Amino acid sequence: MGADTTPAVFGIRELRERSKELSEVALAGKLAIFTRYGAPLMIGVPITNILLEKGVHTGLAISLYEAGILTLAKSAQLASLCLEDFMKLVSSLDIPIADYCIFWYHLNTDSGNS
């Protein structure tokens, strides 16, 4: 969805060696996922203007939606907003609410015309 919003992944044991990279990820406004033995353990959420203005739940919901981790509906639920209000909020932040590449592909293939 635009810029690279894929969360960075850090193993708990390597945090000391990768602390500079972690701070760069946070400064870029990206989420970080911390793992233990390869399994997700926790999420690091950077402090951004959106987080400060909208609150933790909404800021996290926006980040997870933008990264493609949660759907619009699940993100709206996390933000405690109705789907319509969450869609308006995301749109106001210039985050696409539809993947036009997939939509355009389906319009221009014979898969829907049989």
A few lines on this structure:
The chain is of the alpha+beta class and about 110 residues long. Helix content is about 45%, strand content about 15%.
Beta-strand share of residues: 5-15%
Structural class: alpha+beta
Tell me the series of helices and strands, N- to C-terminal: EHEEHHHHH
How many H/I helices? 6
The helix content is 40-55%
The profile of the biggest β sheet is: 3 strands, mixed
Average pLDDT value?
86
Morphology: globular
What are the SSEs and their pairings?
Layout: E1 8-11, H1 19-27, E2 32-36, E3 39-44, H2 49-54, H3 56-66, H4 72-78, H5 83-92, H6 100-107
Parallel strand pairs: 1-2
Antiparallel strand pairs: 2-3
What are the main properties of this structure?
globular, 3 strands, alpha+beta, three-stranded mixed beta sheet, 13% strand, 114 residues
